[in-house]
Structure formats: structure tokens, C-alpha cells
């Protein structure tokens, strides 16, 4: 996700140069390799050790990161559309390929967004004090898929296909954004009642920027595509697309302003904290990246030099931060201490129910031994 959003930002910066597009292509290729490696290793792990899947799904924290898979895949789709279709001019087959990949991403996003909250309700043991912003991860997945749908629809030559994509994307936006707002209310209540998270997971305070930034970017792009496609397909009123476009920009500004509040909370939270480098540092990149992307898009649509410059500043900060995190990860990677599977810490240990049964059987056995005169000292 973090590497993918850097590739997207490099070709989205308003003040473009040819070398930025070359860098974006390099990062895009690197992200393809990274995604294939991580996804392949994960699939192999669960295929060889099926029990680890059950342990992971029932873990109250690690299971939430399932949402990162479709989100990371969506960044590949966006970069493919921009670099290979818009500027590479790869032809109709590339449009079909991108559209197919998007539908796969939609299915994975919806399954994650609906499945994980249900697991939280039915199987996980949670409390308000242990709630973190990681609860947003499965919820953000359909919001990211919605924004990707707008990007894919912009390159579809068939108006009906583009219309289906836009309508489904609006539904995905409606699935993710309101639910994310519910989680944000709960998370704000948790911060107010139980203070900031532990320093090991303090970086998670940046995660609320994800649904707000991506939601703002997506609703703007969907409005622009609705304004283009609706008149061509005779959908609703002739002015329906224009209304959605204007409304989308207004909603994006509201979400951007709300994100500004959470950005202040996040920066204030880490300003006085000393926290160790770990995989959680990757939580900086994607939320800040999509917030920068939303800022850039607002600057293009208004148009506003202020938002374009501010978005560029945000984008440069994200790229520099990504370089720091990549360097830190590469430095600590050979030691093997960068990766951790919390769900495996208790693997092989008896559960509370199993311990109770063992204790009961032991007491029954001692009672029988005493009755028969074979009690052990």
C-alpha cells in the first residue's frame, strides 16, 4: 500500500516532469514484485499450514490486516491505468485487463469489509480500551476500490461498462465511508477515555486519514466520471452528472477538513513520543499519501494554486518518509526481527476451555485414586 501510493503520487504531482514519470514507473514495477512476493508467501504459508489461517482470523488484531491485500492490489490497478493505458497506450486489451482486475478487487474488498466486522462481533474478544485505528483497515478496502473504479471507468470505451463501474463504485463508497465514520466516533471516544495508544502502536493514529483522504479523492473522481458518462448513456436527468460532480467536490472539502483535525491529532500524538522502529511505521505512508492525493485533486478541480502547492508539499513529505521507512526496513530485514505473527505466539498452548477440562479430569483422577487407596503423595 505504501509503495503503491508513492507510485501514484509521483505521476499525480501537479508540477510534472518527465523524470517523475520514470521514477513512478520504477516504483510501480518494484511494487508489483513486492506484492507478488508478499501475497505469494502468505498464500504458501496458509496452504502448507492451514491451521495458521484459523489462528490468524480469530486473532483480534492481526486479522484486521486482511484488508491491506485488496488495498495494495488497488494501487497496482491505478498505476497500471495511468502508466500503461493513459500514457503507455497499450490498447483495448489493457482496458479489459484493468476492468477484470478491478472486479476481483471489488469482491475481495466487500468480503473483507463485511466479514471482519462480523468476526469482531461474533468471535473476537474486544473492549473499548483495546480498540485501535486498525479497525479501519478492512473498512477502508471498499473505499479504495471505489476510487479505483472511477480511475478504471475513465479509460473504458464502452459507455455501459463505464456506467456499471460508476454505479458500483458509488455503492462501494456508501459501504465504506459511513461505516468508517462509525469507527472514527468509537476511536475518538477511546482516545478521550483511555488516552493515547501504547508507543509500540502510536503510529496507528495516522490511520483515520485513510478513509477521509481516499473517500474525498474517490467522490471527486466519481463525480467527474458521472458528468462525462451519464449524458452519453441517458442516465437519470441530463443534469444528474453535473449535480453529482458539484456535490462530490463539496463532500471532498468536508472530508478534507475533517482529515485536517485528525492530522493535527496524529502529529500532536507522536511529537512528544519516542517509539521504536517496527513494521508499524509503514502505517505512516498510505494514509498520508491518500490525503495528499485528495489535496492535489481538490487543487485541480477548483482550480486552486494553494491546494496544488499544499498537495505537492504533502506528496514530497510522503515520498521522503517512504524512503526512510524503506531504509529502516532493509537495515533490519536480515536479522529476522522485523516480522511477527502474534497469532502464532500461543500456537500449541491449551485454550482456557481445554485447561478447565484438563483440571477437571485431573481432579476426578485424584478422587478415584483416593477411593481405591492409591492416592499419590
TrEMBL record:
Positions of transmembrane segments: 20-44, 64-88, 100-121, 133-156, 162-189, 201-223, 243-267, 279-299, 305-328
A Pfam family per the record: SLAC1
Family: Belongs to the tellurite-resistance/dicarboxylate transporter (TDT) family.
Listed GO CC annotations: plasma membrane
Protein name: Sulfite efflux pump SSU1
Function: Sulphite efflux pump required for the secretion of sulphite as a reducing agent. In the presence of sulphite, cystine in keratin is directly cleaved to cysteine and S-sulphocysteine, and thereby, reduced proteins become accessible to hydrolysis by a variety of secreted endo- and exoproteases. Excretion of sulphite mediated by an efflux pump also represents a detoxification pathway for dermatophytes during infection of the epidermal stratum corneum, hair and nails, which are rich in cysteine.
Membrane topology: Multi-pass membrane protein
Subcellular location(s) of the protein: Cell membrane
Record bears the keyword Signal: no
Taxonomic source organism: Lineolata rhizophorae
Amino acid at each position: 500500500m505504501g509503495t503503491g501510493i508513492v507510485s501514484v503520487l509521483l505521476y499525480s504531482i501537479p508540477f510534472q516532469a518527465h523524470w517523475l514519470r520514470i521514477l513512478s514507473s520504477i516504483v510501480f514495477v518494484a511494487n508489483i514484485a513486492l506484492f507478488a512476493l508478499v501475497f505469494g508467501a502468505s498464500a504458501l504459508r496458509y496452504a502448507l499450514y492451514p491451521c495458521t489461517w484459523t489462528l490468524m482470523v480469530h486473532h483480534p488484531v492481526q486479522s484486521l490486516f486482511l484488508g491491506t491485500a485488496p488495498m495494495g492490489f488497488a494501487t497496482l490497478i491505478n498505476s497500471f491505468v495511468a502508466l500503461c493505458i493513459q500514457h503507455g497506450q497499450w490498447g483495448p486489451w489493457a482496458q479489459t485487463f484493468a476492468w477484470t482486475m478491478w472486479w476481483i478487487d471489488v469482491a475481495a474488498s466487500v468480503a473483507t469489509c463485511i466479514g471482519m466486522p462480523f468476526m469482531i462481533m461474533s468471535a473476537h474478544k474486544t473492549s473499548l480500551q483495546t480498540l485501535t485505528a486498525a479497525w479501519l483497515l478492512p473498512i477502508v478496502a471498499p473505499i479504495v476500490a471505489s476510487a479505483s473504479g472511477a480511475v478504471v471507468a475513465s479509460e473504458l470505451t464502452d459507455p455501459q461498462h463505464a456506467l456499471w463501474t460508476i454505479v458500483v463504485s458509488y455503492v462501494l463508497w456508501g459501504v465504506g465511508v459511513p461505516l468508517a465514520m462509525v469507527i472514527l466516533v468509537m476511536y475518538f471516544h477511546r482516545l478521550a477515555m483511555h488516552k493515547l495508544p501504547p508507543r509500540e502502536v502510536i503510529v496507528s493514529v495516522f490511520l483515520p486519514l485513510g478513509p477521509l483522504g481516499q473517500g474525498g479523492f474517490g467522490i471527486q473522481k466519481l463525480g467527474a466520471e458521472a458528468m462525462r458518462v451519464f449524458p452519453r448513456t441517458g442516465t437519470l436527468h441530463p443534469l444528474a452528472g453535473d449535480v453529482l460532480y458539484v456535490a462530490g467536490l463539496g463532500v471532498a472539502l468536508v472530508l478534507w477538513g475533517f482529515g485536517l483535525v485528525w492530522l493535527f491529532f496524529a502529529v500532536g500524538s507522536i511529537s512528544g513520543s519516542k517509539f521504536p522502529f517496527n513494521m508499524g511505521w509503514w502505517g505512516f505512508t498510505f494514509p498520508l499519501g491518500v490525503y495528499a492525493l485528495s489535496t492535489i485533486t481538490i487543487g485541480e478541480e477548483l482550480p486552486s494554486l494553494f491546494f496544488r502547492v499544499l498537495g505537492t508539499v504533502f506528496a514530497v513529505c510522503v515520498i521522503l518518509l517512504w524512503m526512510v521507512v524503506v531504509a529502516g526496513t532493509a537495515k533490519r530485514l536480515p536479522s529476522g526481527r522485523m516480522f511477527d505473527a502474534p497469532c502464532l505466539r500461543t500456537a500449541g498452548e491449551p485454550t482456557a476451555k481445554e485447561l478447565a477440562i484438563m483440571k477437571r479430569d485431573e481432579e476426578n483422577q485424584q478422587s478415584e485414586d483416593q477411593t481405591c487407596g492409591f492416592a499419590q503423595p
